[in-house]
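Take a look at this chain, tokens included, and explain the fold to me:
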Amino acid sequence: MDSIGAEGLLAGASLLSRPAEEFGNDPTVEAMWAMKAMEHAEIYFNILCSVDPKFLKLTPHDQGIYSLFRERFPDFEVSKITEDALKSEEAKTKWRPFCEEFKNVVEDYSFGTLLRLDCEGEYSEENSILVTRIQFYAIELARNKEGKNDVIRKKFSANRKNKDGNHS
């Protein structure tokens, strides 16, 4: 991504606001989306490391997203997720109508967003999957409200402070 350069980043940033149908498989646009998803993941993880997740507000629609998620997916285990639970044909038939409920409600509801498969781990190649933003919200809101993300602050906040050069 470093090979894109500052001018490429600026051009790419304006491209990301255009409708996806205008692009084929443009590698510059794909790199920009990947960078944006990674940046979002890094910011979110840093917040989890420093704030009690039960108090996090991700959108103005958190309660509606969480309530509908638990109504439609009452037994969905959010701690450890498999790719099948999100991307199998059976899962897609359940997720698609859920996601569409938020089409005109949640901004960028369909943006590609990285989700941790195991809520006790960091974002990594092995522990991340690309999902829609509304799936990310639904699962992370459940993790936050149900106490599943509590371990992150305890487990990683000291490491984050030390990486930044601060003392814990």
Summary: Residues 1-6, 12-18, 164-168 have pLDDT under 50 and may be disordered. The beta strands are 112-116, 128-132. Residues 2-163 form a domain with the yst0336 like fold fold (CATH 1.10.3560.10). Residues 27-50 form the longest helix (24 residues).
